[in-house]
Specification:
Elements (H helix, E strand, L loop, with lengths): L14 E3 L11 H8 L4 E5 L3 H17 L5 H22 L6 E6 L2 E6 L2 E6 L3 E7 L2 E6 L2 E6 L5 H17 L1
Parallel strand pairs: 1-5
Antiparallel strand pairs: 2-3, 3-4, 4-5, 6-7, 7-8
Length: 169
Amino acid sequence: MTRSNYSKHGDQGPMRRESAGGPAGRTAGAGSVAATAQDQLSFSVRYTLLEYTSFMWQHAGFLIRRRRIGRFATWWMLCKSTTAAALHFVLQGRGRHVYDFTIDAHGIIRSSGTGVTLVPWGDVSAIRRYSCGYMLVLARGTLPIPFRCLSASQAGAMDCFAVAVRAAR
């Protein structure tokens, strides 16, 4: 196996575990999600800058509004965080990669040319629905999933996963 197949985040090989089950007690929700999951979702995503910044604007808006810090400060933080996300998108080359997702009762697998990320259901704290798609809120970070990549039945299955994650928390 060549070095290009390995993740740039260490010498862990092509399979990189984003989280290892989280702190004690965090994996309790995995059984509930597994019990309600009946489908395996498989789809590919190639993000666009506009789509990615839309996700980040909406998610940052949700997080900032909860703080109740005032209109000007809210606007400033939204602009600052969305600009940082757009810069991160460009610098990381997110638009150049195609990400293959597999979501099933065991968790989420995201693979691309740069490596594989495994996320157990215990590390998913929420699945939020925004105007452009679903945002999976993880113990460390987020995974946006655009509606354009899902069929109607897959979107329904994602709604079931969201209900199961909410019930597990």
